Amino acid sequence: MTDRATVPAPIDQPATAGALLTVSGPDRPGVTAALFAALQAAGPEPVEVVDVEQVVVHGQLVLGVVVAGSGAPDLLTRLHRTAGDVAAATGLQVSVEAASAGQQHTERTVRHHVIVLGRPVPPAAVAGAARAIAGVGGNIEAIRRLSDYPVTSFELTVSGAGSTQLRTALATVAAETGTDVAVEQAGLSRRSKRLIVLDVDSTLVRGEVIDELAARAGRAAEVARITAAAMNGELDFEESLRARVAVLAGLPVGVLDEVREHLVLTPGARTLIRTLQRLGFRCGIVSGGFTQITDPLAETLGLDFAAANTLEVADGKLTGGLVGEVVDRAGKARALARFAAEHGIPLEQTVAVGDGANDLDMLNAAGLGIAFNAKPVVREQAHAALNQPYLDAVLQVLGFTRDEVLDADPGVSPLG
C-alpha cells in the first residue's frame, strides 16, 4: 500500500485593501510622528505603510501616506477614526479615501526632469510646460523649486514621455514665454557627472578676445564679421581663425597682457566653478582662443586643465600665425575626451558648456551638452540651452538647489 501525499485544502486569505490618508494645513513639529503613531495603534489588525510623500510650500504641509491592510470596510472604518484622532491632536485636516492595494507595484517607466528657468518665471511658462507635457502623453509626478536667485527655477519630474518628444514640445513654450526649459533623463547618470569643460569667449568671459585684439590693430569691424559668421557655422573655423589671426601681425606681445587684464568673467562663473570643485568635479576650459590668455586665466581660477591655440610671437610681436595643432570644432571634442581619459572619467559623466558652432562636437560628445546664450544652430542641437546672463544657472540644470549651492560654497552670498 503506497502512501499518498495529502494536499492541504486552500486557506482563504483575507482580502487586502488600501487607503490614502492626506494631512494638510500649517506645518509644525510633530505632525508626522503623530500620524504614524496613530497608524501603529489603528488595531486590531496591523497596517502596512506602502508609500509616503510630503511637501511643505511656504509653511503649508501636505503629507500623503498609502497604507494596506486586511478587510476593506473594516480598514476604512478604523482609519477614519484614526484620522479624527490625528486631526484633533494636530488641528490639521486629515482625509481618508480608498486606494488600490497593488498601486505600489506600478510598471517601471522612464522619467525625466524638466527644468524651467527664468527671471522671472511667469505663470504662462508653467502652464505652457504642463500643457506641452500632457500633449505628448507625459504626466507630472512632482514639482520642486530649485532656486530663487539669480534666476528662479523649478524642476518637474515627468513620466510617460520620451526625451525627444519633450524637448520638441517644450522648445515652443520656451520661445513663447521667454524662459529656458531643459530636459534630462532621471536616474543615477544625472548626479554622476564628475567633469565640466567650459568654452571661454562669450561663455566663461564676456565678449570675444580676438575682437579685442583686432580693435587694437584697427581691424575690429572686419574681424567681428568673420567671428560672427564662424560662430554661426557659416565658415570653417580653422580657415576663419587663421584669417583673423593674420590681421594681428605686428601687434606688440604686451597687448595680450592688456586684453587679459580687462577680461570680465560672466556673472556666476566663479560660483559655478567653486561649487563644482567643492563637489569633487574636475573643471577646465577648452577654447578656440589663445593660450596666452587662457593659461593664466585657468591658473587664476584654479582649473584642472586648459586647451587653446597658441599665437606665434617673434621679436616681441605677433607674426599673424599660429603654433601647433589648431583647436577647432573637432579639436575641442578631442580635448574633452583627452581630459576625461586623463582623470579616468567616462564621457557620459562629463558636462560641456559653449555658445558657438565650433562647440557642437564637444557638446554632443559630453554626457550633457549645454548651449549658453548660444547661436540658434547650437541651441537646436545641444542637450539643453540656457539664455540667462548667469553662468551658475548651469547648477540648476544639473539639479542642484540654491540651498545646496550655498552649503557647498560658503563664499557665495545668499544674494549672489
CATH class of the largest domain: Alpha Beta
The average pLDDT is 90
Q: Can you tell me the CATH superfamily of the largest domain? A: HAD superfamily/HAD-like
Number of strands: 15
Looking at the structure, the CATH topology of the largest domain is Rossmann fold
**Rounded to an integer, what's the Rg over CA atoms?**
29 Å
Output the strand order for the largest sheet: 12-11-10-9-13-14-15
From the spread of the alpha carbons, the general shape counts as elongated
CATH architecture level-2 label of the largest domain: 3-Layer(aba) Sandwich
- Write down the secondary-structure element order: EHEEHEEHEEHEEHHHHHEHEEHEHEHEHH
Structural category: alpha/beta
**Count of discrete domains:** 3
Q: Estimate the helix proportion, in percent.
A: 25-40%
Beta percentage is: 25-35%
Q: How far is the first residue's CA from the last residue's CA?
A: 90 Å
Tell me which oligomeric state these chains represent: single chain
Largest sheet: 7 strands, mixed
Low-confidence stretches: 1-14
Number of helices: 15
Explain this structure to me?
The strands form 3 sheets. The protein has a 7-stranded mixed sheet with strand order 12-11-10-9-13-14-15. Strands 2-3-1-4 form a 4-stranded antiparallel sheet, covered by helices on one side. A 4-stranded antiparallel sheet has the order 6-7-5-8, with helices on one face. It has 3 domains: 16-105, Alpha-Beta Plaits, CATH 3.30.70; 111-191, Alpha-Beta Plaits; 195-382, HAD superfamily/HAD-like (Rossmann fold, 3-Layer(aba) Sandwich), CATH 3.40.50. It is elongated. With 416 residues, the protein is α/β, with parallel strands linked by helices. It has helices spanning 31-40, 72-90, 123-135, 163-177, 209-216, 220-231, 237-246, 254-261, 269-278, 291-301, 329-342, 360-365, 376-381, 394-397, 402-408; strands spanning 16-26, 48-57, 60-70, 93-99, 111-118, 139-147, 152-159, 180-185, 195-198, 282-290, 305-314, 317-323, 350-354, 368-372, 384-386. 37% of the residues lie in helices and 27% in strands. Helix 1 runs antiparallel to helix 2 (72-90), helix 5 crosses helix 8 (254-261) and helix 6 (220-231) packs antiparallel against helix 7. The model is unreliable at 1-14 (pLDDT under 50).
